[in-house]
From TrEMBL:
The lineage of its organism: Bacteria, Pseudomonadati, Bacteroidota, Cytophagia, Cytophagales. InterPro entries: Glyas_Bleomycin-R_OHBP_Dase, Glyas_Fos-R_dOase_dom, VOC_core. CDD domains: VOC_like (cd08357). This is VOC domain-containing protein. It comes from Cyclobacterium lianum. Residues 5-131 form the VOC domain.
Length: 140
């Protein structure tokens, strides 16, 4: 896949310290600038800005996708195949509670992918996925 510019995403969190621990210690994100009200993370080469704003946290609503309840509001990264499996193993070893367990979605179809969903400490839904054939990333 061609190199793309990093995206920036700002999102609400409940507590700065639990957010710091989760994104830095569990996901391995480096910390950028921060104050007591916000913190920036290097999220797999992209800039996440977590802002303490608990009143902005939403309930997790879902749509059916391939027989699973997929959270409508979510973000994440498309990893390479090996990196996705390493992350899935790390999350399992840390006993992360999955919304959707690691599995292969659309098996044998266009867009076949490895995917998993879980919540951060503030209830923000994250999805990590991978394609064995990265040309399938935007296939229809």
């Amino acid at each position: 896949m061609a190199a793309i510019p990093p995206f920036h995403l700002a999102f609400p969190v409940r507590d700065i310290e639990e957010t710091r621990t989760f994104y830095q210690d569990l996901l391995g994100c480096e910390i950028g600038r921060s104050t007591e009200k916000w913190i920036d993370f290097n999220f797999f080469g992209h800039q996440l800005s977590a802002h303490v704003k608990p009143e902005e946290l939403a309930l997790v609503n879902a749509n059916q996708v391939d027989g699973k309840n997929v959270p409508v509001r979510h973000f994440g990264v498309v990893l390479d195949w090996e990196g996705w499996h390493e992350l899935a193993d790390r999350l399992k070893n840390h006993q992360v509670k999955f919304i959707i367990e690691p599995h292969i979605r659309f098996k044998g179809e266009v867009g076949e992918q490895a995917t998993l969903f879980f919540l951060d400490p503030s209830g923000n839904a994250l999805e990590f996925k991978a394609f064995e054939d990265e040309k399938q990333t935007f296939s229809r």
